[in-house]
Amino acid sequence: xxxxxxxxxxxxxxxxxxxxxxxxxxxxxxxxxxxxxxxxxxxxxxxxxxxxxxxxxxxxxxxxxxxxxxxxxxxxxxxxxxxxxxxxxxxxxxxxxxxxxxxxxxxxxxxxxxxxxxxxxxxxxx
Length: 126
Hints:
This protein is mainly β and 126 residues long.
């Protein structure tokens, strides 16, 4: 059973950077694709980025493309989300979630991700 724990959130000024980490327990984590999602106050949770099990394929929401980079280190059982040029509209709770190797596509709708981490707060404000 894979379990996920996010870290690295915090308060940052507009234009700043943060790196989020998603640390996993479980020997089979390297078999799972992983997605990052976020939920801003009063809004629906939305997709941010996804990475295949090997790290060779990535996919981003248009709103973060060119600013965020998803990567992984399977030896460390960790997936990262490097966030640059942060904007106030990036303020949200960020979640990572694992996608079973049952699915042939490394990305998909939220209900195809399980388990989820507890989330980490990112606040972009001056």
